[in-house]
Design brief:
Number of domains: 2
CATH class of the largest domain: Alpha Beta
Shape: globular
Number of strands: 8
Oligomer: single chain
CATH architecture of the largest domain: 3-Layer(aba) Sandwich
Radius of gyration: 23 Å
Largest sheet: 5 strands, mixed
Distance between the termini: 20 Å
Number of helices: 10
CATH superfamily of the largest domain: Glutaredoxin
Strand order of the largest sheet: 6-5-4-7-8
CATH topology of the largest domain: Glutaredoxin
Strand content: 5-15%
Helix content: 40-55%
């Protein structure tokens, strides 16, 4: 029973750490929210690095518990992390800030009460699995082999997702989703966009959208009131250079959209590639837009749509990455480093293919890859 309880704890830590490791940008957002909650905003520049470090510790702890290696060290790490998370979840439950726990990023979303209950259960499991420590026993030597292989696989996956895109997209802008625009009818109130900063939540019209220090929460057509927020809808508030609502531009016909949430990181060669991409898309008969958090003199030749930092980064985790949409349907997304659609011929091939078939083709490969890695690592840890 002790090993079974330890395996359950290990599975939770392994999944929690792995989901965060394959979504570095989302992990950075989660840690930023925690820094804001504890009024440590000065730590925001290291949020992503801190999140990845903590996620790595979680994942390695989970792997150690599942394989049974370094049992005393794994037990101490698991109890320490569980104790820390229980204290934090208690504070969140008491003060009830407008945030999610982020335990599993956006793969599994838990309420603050559910998170607290989960941590209490983990505390009980830790007591049953690790006390007394003299009864933990020893592992078989071959388990160190599976431990090392899985740790290396996690590191490779984390590096790949840092350089490209998450292996699995759990955001509301995942391929297969359809963007929505909220257009008020004549005589109706204009939709208001809900943003939050330092636990303060306010609504803004499109012309009043605040700077990137505010986080987008949802859309409310009737004002701020309970139940009106549409947090899970695929809504991407965008405005043109003149401040006008421009979200509907992505919902018309075939569209290629490049997302840039940190313009300063783009090199001249990156911009040259984007301009070439734009020329190929326009020549093939598609629309092309650059989605950015702010204007830049280098963007002058491009059709620019401005949006919130967090929303642009959620739409595409890769800075400089692109998405192909058909009447608002997100067919596929690719990272800046992806070679797909780098030529006019490839652009024409994408446009001539059925969007649904294209979505199924690319999403199936991604799904099979991520699931095979998850199942394979679990089998390796438990069976070897």
């Amino acid at each position: 029973m002790k090993r079974f309880a330890a395996a359950i704890i290990g599975l939770v830590f392994f999944l929690s750490g792995s989901f965060k490791l394959i979504d570095p940008v989302g992990t950075g957002f989660i840690v930023t929210e925690y820094f804001n909650f504890f009024h440590c905003t000065f730590l925001q520049p290291v949020a992503k690095a801190a999140g990845m470090l903590l996620s790595g510790i979680e994942a390695v702890t989970g792997i150690a518990l599942l394989t049974g290696v370094a049992r005393k060290a794994g037990a101490i790490a698991a109890m320490s992390l569980t104790g820390l998370f229980t204290i934090i979840s208690t504070l969140l439950l008491i003060f009830n800030p407008p945030m999610d726990c982020g335990c599993f990023v956006q793969a599994i979303q838990l309420s603050l009460a559910q998170t607290f209950a989960k941590n209490i259960v983990l505390c009980l499991l830790c007591a049953g699995a690790f006390i007394p420590m003299s009864s933990l026993g020893e592992c078989k030597k071959r388990k160190w082999v599976s431990f090392g292989i899985v740790c290396c696989a996690e590191a490779v996956a984390a590096l790949f997702c840092t350089l490209y895109l998450p292996l699995e997209d759990f955001t509301r802008f995942s391929p297969g989703s359809t963007l929505k625009a909220f257009a008020a009818e004549e005589g109706e109130a204009q939709p208001r966009y809900i943003y939050e900063k330092d636990s303060l939540r306010l609504s803004f019209t499109l012309e009043e959208i605040p700077d990137s220090s505010w986080s987008f929460v949802g859309v409310d057509e009737d004002g701020v009131k309970d139940g009106a927020l549409l947090q899970d809808e695929a809504v991407l508030p965008l405005r043109g250079r003149d401040g006008s609502d421009a979200t509907a531009l992505l919902l018309q016909g075939s569209v290629f959209a490049v997302s840039v949430y940190e313009p300063e990181e783009l090199t001249d060669s990156n911009l040259a590639a984007i301009e070439k991409f734009r020329a190929d898309a326009l020549e093939a008969g598609a629309a092309f837009y650059l989605l950015a958090t702010r204007d830049d003199p280098r963007f002058a030749p491009l059709e620019l749509l401005l949006g919130d930092y967090r929303e642009i980064a959620t739409f595409n985790r890769s800075n400089g990455g692109w998405a192909y949409l058909d009447d608002g349907f997100i067919v596929l997304k690719r990272a800046r480093r992806s070679r797909l659609a780098r030529s006019a011929g490839t652009v024409r091939e994408l446009l001539s293919s059925d969007p649904t078939e294209m979505f199924i083709k690319f999403s199936t490969v991604s799904f099979i890859t991520s699931q095979a890695m998850l199942v394979g690592t679990l089998i390796l840890m438990l069976a070897l």
